[in-house]
Design a protein that fits this description.
218 residues; elongated; mainly alpha
Amino acid sequence: MKLLLDFLPIILFFAVFKWGDGNKELAGQWLTQHLGFMVAGGVVGAKEAPMLLATVAVAAISVLQIVIMKLLRKKIDTMLWVSLVTVLGLGALTIYFHSPTFIMWKPTVIYWAMGGGLLVSDIIMKRYVLRKMMSASDLELPEAIWRNLSWAWVLFFVGMGVLNLYVAYNFSESTWVNFKMWGGIGLMLVFTLAQGVYLARHMPPAQKDSKADAGVSQ
């Protein structure tokens, strides 16, 4: 369920953009009629309508997620607050200035925020948040392995932020949206699988045997 909630804004952004891209005139008219007061000049053109409509949708779902979690008294992760502030701030600028550039920076801001957080917590303060997050798996590995893994995630997030900007500034809006949906999630999945392989290679033999026995017993 948590994984679905994490990816819901991305999925909604993608779906709404694709609908708006196929119905530009209708999307522009709807935005002008209902949200014209938020836009410089009061009119949304057909060309910028898909991105603005997707931005409105992702801002709305981000707020709704926080409200629902508050009502359910669920703990809200710091990164979810960072994501909310980022999407509202950059989204407002995108809508007002009719410019997709601002919202295109959102993934980069989030990636770099996560990378910076890991750099401070795991590398500088040596709290090894990743190890705590994976404590349920009972992994007992040398500190050097956790440090290497933390560095790998930091570099991955930095690289993803740079890659996002490269696609945003060198390709069409539609290509960027496709990359945001499929490229971002795909690369994250590949990196996570690579992390599993790395951890398995450095797992003590006793732990490997216990994991294997657990798998057989299931």
